[in-house]
UniProtKB/TrEMBL annotation:
InterPro entries assigned to the protein according to its UniProt record, in alphabetical order: FAS1_dom_sf, FAS1_domain, Fasciclin-like_AGP
Signal peptide: none
Pfam families registered for this protein in UniProt: Fasciclin (PF02469)
UniProt source species: Rhododendron griersonianum
Sequence similarity: Belongs to the fasciclin-like AGP family.
FAS1 domain location: 1-123
SMART domains attached to this UniProt entry: FAS1
Keyword Transmembrane helix: yes
Keyword field contains Transmembrane helix: yes
Name of this protein: FAS1 domain-containing protein
Origin organism lineage: Eukaryota, Viridiplantae, Streptophyta, Embryophyta, Tracheophyta
Keywords: Membrane, Transmembrane, Transmembrane helix
Residue stretches of biased makeup (Low complexity): 148-159
Disordered: annotated span: 138-159
Residue spans crossing the bilayer: 170-190
Length: 207
């Protein structure tokens, strides 16, 4: 993560240099082993943006000050994080990913916390779609536009970003991917059945 940030952090912040209302950033850093999994062998820069918060988020904020299901805006347009810290648990988590180490780096302007894995943007999109900038109503039709727009008044304001892709398009994309996965599974099962159908039963009974 540090290697990626050294080469890309300036370019990630460049588009927002005239719109950011804060000079403090909090970065959530997954462990090295997360970069060696089939899911994220080469994480895109958009995923790195999803781990950067334009605000000061300290341990107290994430463990006790911010309410359960609070929204935290990130540098990825239209995709906030969601606080999933259980009340009185004393163990902070975001998008159901636990914070494992506090203040790995902190110079007053950049704060780095360790987390156990990458955050999945689909977590918020599927479970909290009303937090998206283009979809401000919850599943019951109640307007949620005023829910935790800022992280806290003492830790700086988190800017709301315009979303590039509508929630409807995301659901269509997920449906297409799910359908493709189902077809692929059926093809694999069909090939496996054909492969083993020619084998006769071999008795292992010892006389």
């Amino acid at each position: 993560m540090s290697i990626i940030l050294q080469g890309a952090l300036s370019s990630l912040l460049l588009p927002f240099k005239n719109t950011l209302n804060t000079t403090t950033f909090t970065i959530f850093c997954p462990p090295d082993k997360a970069f060696f999994t089939p899911k994220y062998p080469q994480p895109p820069l958009t995923l790195i943006q999803y781990h950067i918060v334009p605000s000061n988020l300290d341990r107290e904020s994430l463990e006790s000050s911010l309410r359960f299901e609070s929204k935290i805006d990130t540098l990825l347009p239209g995709h906030p994080l969601v606080v999933t810290t259980a009340p009185h648990s004393g163990r902070a988590s975001i998008n159901d990913v636990k914070v494992t180490e506090w203040d790995m780096y902190n110079d007053g302007r950049v704060i780095v916390h360790g987390v156990e894995d990458f955050f999945d943007p689909a977590f918020q999109t599927l479970l909290y779609p009303w937090y998206d900038s283009n979809n401000r109503s919850n599943k019951n039709g109640t307007d949620k536009s005023g829910v935790d727009e800022a992280v806290s008044s003492s830790s700086g304001s988190a800017t709301s970003w315009e979303k590039n892709m509508t929630v409807d398009n995301l659901f269509i994309m997920l449906a297409v991917v799910s359908l493709a996965g189902s077809v692929l599974s059926l093809v694999c099962l069909y090939r496996a059945n054909r492969r083993y159908s020619g084998y006769s039963f071999i008795s292992t009974e010892v006389y």
